[in-house]
Structure formats: C-alpha cells, structure tokens
C-alpha cells in the first residue's frame, strides 16, 4: 500500500483520523474501528525519522484506537452497554465543526479589509454652551437665498420681506421662549416644538441657541438624540 500523505501535513491526530474516514467514505457514526486502527498505525510506522515528542499526540490516539478495538472484540456483557466508539465520534464531530469554520475563515481572510466599521459615537459633555449669533444665521440664510436662480424681478423685494419677517419673528419667539422658561423653571425642547410647523420649530431652535449664547439659559443632553433639557440660569 502506497502512503503519499505524510503526518506533518496534518494538524493533529483527529485531523489524520478524519482524513482516513473521509478517504474510505466511512460513516462517522459507524466507524470500522479495526480497519481504521490498522491504517492509522501504518501511517505512524512511516514516521521513524520524526521526533517522538512531535508525534506524542498521534501515539496517544493510536493507543485510544487500540483500546476501542479491543473493547469491540470482547463480547458484550449487556445489550445496553455504551458503544466504545461513542466518545471518539463526538470528538470527531466537534473537530469537524472547527475544521469547517477554520476553512471558512481562511477563504474569507482576503476580504477582511473590506468590512465596514461600525459607526462610533464619541463621548461628549452633557452640559454645553453653544456660541452662535442669530444675526449671522439670518445673514447666511439670506446669502443662500440670494444665490438661487430667480425667475421673477420681484425676488429681491421678496427676499427683503422674508428676511425682515424672519428677524421680527425670531425676536418675538426669543421673548416667548424666555418667558415660558421663566415660568416653568425647567423645560424640554420636545415640549417647545410640539404641534407647531417646521418653520416655527426652526425659529424656536434658533431662539434657544441665542438665549444660551447670551447666558440666560443652560442646555443639558445626556446622550446623542436625547431630548434637550432647558433650565433658567
């Protein structure tokens, strides 16, 4: 019998044993222990040039196979006596699972750099003061509107009217928000914007930022996307 596969190609005794089982197309649950043991020992006999320390695990497995073989040859005392191959089968099954996982990981190793990194939220202080100038925000908004393509000669006049209206509205909202917070002592942004239009939400948010900048209120937020707690200073 010609043995082309050498032991160093195997990762351990279970690897060699699994190879023999697959080679002979044997059902792992019905191992012909005598045949497998003989083949296993023949592999071991071809290792006379290998350091004994490096094949100690293989020798232990050989002893295990011989023990199972001897038990299989002895007459059973009881019909319900456990199959001596059972423990070996369980070990082979577990090893086979790890082997399949190892092959999968090896095949996917080249793609590890393409995995997307999970979004990471950085820690930030729960108490913060936002420095913003509401007039600059209005001016920025005005500049954005002025860059839009116009289809009417009245757009400049409309822009002035919109900006003037916004300035008046924001100043009015600032007073309303400040008065509300003075009465409540503590307020939440979700309460301030409940049941109002999108434009009004923007005005009230700008009002809160300006009041915070002026030092009239403090803003608190435990984590990202949490409600903003507003307290009077």
From TrEMBL:
It comes from the Bacteria. This is Segregation and condensation protein A. Belongs to the ScpA family. Participates in chromosomal partition during cell division. May act via the formation of a condensin-like complex containing Smc and ScpB that pull DNA away from mid-cell into both cell halves. Keywords: Cell cycle, Cell division, Chromosome partition, Cytoplasm. It is found in: Cytoplasm. Transmembrane segments: none annotated. One of its GO terms (cellular component) is cytoplasm. GO terms for biological process: cell division; chromosome segregation; DNA replication. InterPro entries: ScpA (IPR003768), ScpA-like_C (IPR023093). Component of a cohesin-like complex composed of ScpA, ScpB and the Smc homodimer, in which ScpA and ScpB bind to the head domain of Smc. The presence of the three proteins is required for the association of the complex with DNA.
């Amino acid at each position: 019998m010609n043995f082309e596969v050498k032991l160093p190609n195997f990762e351990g005794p279970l690897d060699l044993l699994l190879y023999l089982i697959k080679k002979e197309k044997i059902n792992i649950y019905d191992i012909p222990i005598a045949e497998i043991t003989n083949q296993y020992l023949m592999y071991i006999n071809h290792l006379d040039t290998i350091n004994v320390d490096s094949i100690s695990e293989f020798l232990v497995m050989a002893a295990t196979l011989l023990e199972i073989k001897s038990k299989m040859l002895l007459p059973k005392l009881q019909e319900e006596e456990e199959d001596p191959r059972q423990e070996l089968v369980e070990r082979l099954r577990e090893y086979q699972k790890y082997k399949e996982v190892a092959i999968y990981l090896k095949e996917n190793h080249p793609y590890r750099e393409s995995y997307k990194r999970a979004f990471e939220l950085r820690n930030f202080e729960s108490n913060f003061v936002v420095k913003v100038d509401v007039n600059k925000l209005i001016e920025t908004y005005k500049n954005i509107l002025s860059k839009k393509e116009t289809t009417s000669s009245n757009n400049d006049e409309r822009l002035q009217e919109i900006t003037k209206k916004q300035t008046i509205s924001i100043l009015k909202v600032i007073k309303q928000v400040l008065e509300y917070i003075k009465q409540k002592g503590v307020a939440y942004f979700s309460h301030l914007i409940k049941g109002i239009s999108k434009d009004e939400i923007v005005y009230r948010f700008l009002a809160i930022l300006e009041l915070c900048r002026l030092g009239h209120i403090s803003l608190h937020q435990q984590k990202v996307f949490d409600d903003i707690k507003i307290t009077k200073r």
